[in-house]
Amino acid sequence: MLGLLFIIGTAGSGKSLFTAAFAEWLKMSKQDVAIVNLDPGVLKIPYSPDVDIRNYVDVGMVMEKYGLGPNGALILAADLIADKIDAITQEVESMDADIVLVDTPGQMELFAFRASGPYIFNELTKDPKALVYLFDAVFSLNPFNYVSNMFLSAAIYNRFFAPQVHLLSKIDLIQEEKVEQIIDWSSSVEALETSIENTLEGTKRLFSRNMMQAICQLGFQFKLMPVSSKTNEGLLDFNTCLERLLVGGNKYTY
Ligand SMILES: Nc1nc2c(ncn2[C@@H]2O[C@H](COP(=O)(O)OP(=O)(O)OP(=O)(O)O)[C@@H](O)[C@H]2O)c(=O)[nH]1
Ligand SMILES: [Mg+2]
Questions:
Q1: Distance from the alpha carbon of residue 47 to the mean position of ligand 2, in angstroms
Q2: What pTM was computed for the model?
Q3: Which of 60, 121, 210, 224 falls between 20 and 30 A from 244, CA-CA?
Q4: Residue 167, phi-psi category: left (phi > 0), alpha (psi -120 to 50), beta (remainder)
Q5: Residue 85, Cα to own-chain centre: how many angstroms?
Q6: Residue 95, Cα to own-chain centre: how many angstroms?
């Protein structure tokens, strides 16, 4: 296996649909891909997973057995998944795919900010791994939200310390010039600073400016890649970036 890509982002940022769209795109390009659903609480997913965590842990049963509400049950479910990591790893390895897409749970904090998430990330096979962090384009339209999302993606980096690629998802939902502006914010500190100064006021301006500077000082930099899981725009460029990251620019499957 060449690597596992963990798709991560805030609730509703488009993780599952991106997993579905990119897996389809890879299959059409004759690449050997497998999908893992790591969300134990999801009811409907837009793809058929090759490995499904719901076959290992049933959130409904956890709620009933331990008398928990939905969030408590999801937290316990993450710990139960961690306990079964060897069996899950075996199932993933038996797929023998070149590239594995892992769709992470809806509530990002459950996966990232508890011990079980990074444990699962590290232990799910010993193959190379990367994170794909989604910035929801609709949410990222204003610089205040954009900086908040930068902060979250830096926090994710700080939890996993793994290669992290950043995508601007759902670009079909916003105007092209807005897409360009957000991409500009990601590649130029000056462009982001100018938008903060021009469009924000008071505490929001101060917070955004200081937060942006703090994140830049940490050396956490990335250029967002625009994608749409509805139109498939940007998937080719994203794949080229992945090929560079995983196999020095070659194809995954021959
Ligand atoms: N127009 C458009 N809608 C999208 C795109 N990606 C996702 N959506 C929609 O956004 C909503 C959330 O998408 P999901 O893929 O379920 O997002 P998620 O991050 O997996 O959501 P949770 O797992 O519940 O946190 C759905 O209604 C999708 O159809 C996109 O590229 N374009
Ligand atoms: Mg999802």
A1: 11
A2: 0.96
A3: 121
A4: beta
A5: 20
A6: 22
CA distance 15 to 4: 15
Better pLDDT: 71 or 138: 138
Reported as half-sphere exposure (CB side, CA atoms, 13 A), residue 109 has a value of: 3
d(CA 23, CA 177): 28
Residue 69's contacts (CB-CB under 8 Å, 6 or more residues apart) are: 63
| CA within 13 Å, CB half, 212 | 24
**Domain covering 1-127, topology:** Rossmann fold (3.40.50)
Ligand 2 center to 16 CA (angstroms): 4
Q: What is the dihedral of CA 176, 180, 186, 188, to 10 degrees?
A: -170
Pocket flag, ligand 1, residue 143 (CB < 6 Å): no
The response to whether residue 106 sits with its C-beta less than 6 Å from ligand 1 reads yes
Alpha carbon nearest to ligand 1 atom 13, residue: 14
Quick check: CB of 12 below 6 Å from ligand 1?
yes
pLDDT, one tens digit per residue, over 73-93 is 999 999 999 999 999 999 999
Residue 39 Cα to ligand 1 midpoint, Å, equals: 14
Nearest Cα residue to atom 3 of ligand 1 = 170
Is 41 touching ligand 1 by the criterion CB < 6 Å? Answer: no
Q: Give the separation between CA 144 and CA 200, rounded to whole angstroms.
A: 7
- Where does CATH 3.40.50.300 sit in the chain? 1-127
CA of 35 to the centre of ligand 2 (A): 13
Taking alpha carbons only, the member of 251, 254, 221 closest to residue 236 is: 251
User: Measured from the CB, is residue 173 less than 6 Å from ligand 1?
Assistant: yes
Which atom of ligand 1 lies nearest, measured to the CA of 108? 25
